[in-house]
């Protein structure tokens, strides 16, 4: 009888946990659904009372308005190229730096690591003017290179990689590889990289989505419509005198789709990096 009661309590508690998680998921997904509804509706539906919650029939026409205002696909490609290059460079730099901070001893290691972490508390807006000055002097204004260069050093990425390498890569494995004559880079390439792939997926998704959604720096550097990223291009959809919310949210909706695709592609590795607690 006691076992039956415990089983019922566990089943009931599990039911409430799943119910809570389901409600939280629905609340999280509702903004995306509402954005889709507005993307298929006329502009007047934005301020309608009661609010419109049923998709309309203007998906194609609203998106055609977007294409008539901006070069949407060129901007989308620019954003994809920018985010991909930044993500790959950040993964390379962060994993190498994380490996060095986790497994090597050198003078000033802790001071340098803490100095990198302290840069995380500095608001990005404070560096806007000096960064613009340096990019201008380098002749990188109005180029994607001028946008991406400020994202290459990612303190959060270095911290995450350092923690993951420390916990997932045994020191004994490193020492055994050194005894076999492996160089440091060979150890990184052949031993560390295969182990930290889940962390790669997590950091890659974080960096890709962060750069994709960043607006201020991209808007500051880019002025040529040929180099516009999707965020800067979407900002040009707004009109002071007549704002077409259906058109704007249609552009925002289709600009969000690549992020969902990227997340679904690496979802498995992302989840495994959270749940994995030991070396396979």
From TrEMBL:
GO terms for cellular component: plasma membrane. CDD domains: TM_PBP2 (cd06261). Keywords: Cell membrane, Membrane, Transmembrane, Transmembrane helix, Transport. It is found in: Cell membrane. It comes from the Bacteria. One of its GO terms (biological process) is transmembrane transport. It holds the Pfam family BPD_transp_1. InterPro entries: MetI-like (IPR000515), MetI-like_sf (IPR035906). It is a multi-pass membrane protein. Its main location: membrane. Gene3D superfamilies: MetI-like. Belongs to the binding-protein-dependent transport system permease family. This is Carbohydrate ABC transporter permease. It comes from Bacillus salacetis. The lineage of its organism: Bacteria, Bacillati, Bacillota, Bacilli, Bacillales.
């Amino acid at each position: 009888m006691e076992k039956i009661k415990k089983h019922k309590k566990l089943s009931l508690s599990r039911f409430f946990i799943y119910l809570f998680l389901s409600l939280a998921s629905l609340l999280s997904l509702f903004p995306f659904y509402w954005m889709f509804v507005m993307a298929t509706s006329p502009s007047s539906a934005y301020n309608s009372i009661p609010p419109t919650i049923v998709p309309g029939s203007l998906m194609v026409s609203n998106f055609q308005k977007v294409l008539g205002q901006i070069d949407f696909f060129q901007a989308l490609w620019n954003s994809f190229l920018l985010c991909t290059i930044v993500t790959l460079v950040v993964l390379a730099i962060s994993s190498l730096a994380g490996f060095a901070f986790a497994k090597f001893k050198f003078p000033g290691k802790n001071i340098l690591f803490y100095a990198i972490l302290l840069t995380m508390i500095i608001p990005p807006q404070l560096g806007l003017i000096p960064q613009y000055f340096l990019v201008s002097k380098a002749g990188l204004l109005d180029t994607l290179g001028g946008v991406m260069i400020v994202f290459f050093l990612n303190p959060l990425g270095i911290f995450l990689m350092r923690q993951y390498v420390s916990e997932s890569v045994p020191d004994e494995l490193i020492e055994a590889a050194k005894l076999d004559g492996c160089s440091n880079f060979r150890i990184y390439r052949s031993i560390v990289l295969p182990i930290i792939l889940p962390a790669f997926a997590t950091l890659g998704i974080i960096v890709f989505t962060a750069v994709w959604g960043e607006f201020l720096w991209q808007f500051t550097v880019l002025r040529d419509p040929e180099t516009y990223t999707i965020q800067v291009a979407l900002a040009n959809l707004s009109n002071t005198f007549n704002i077409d919310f259906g058109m704007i949210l249609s552009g925002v909706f289709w600009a969000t789709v690549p992020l969902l695709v990227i997340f679904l592609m690496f979802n498995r590795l992302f989840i495994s990096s959270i749940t994995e607690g030991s070396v396979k």
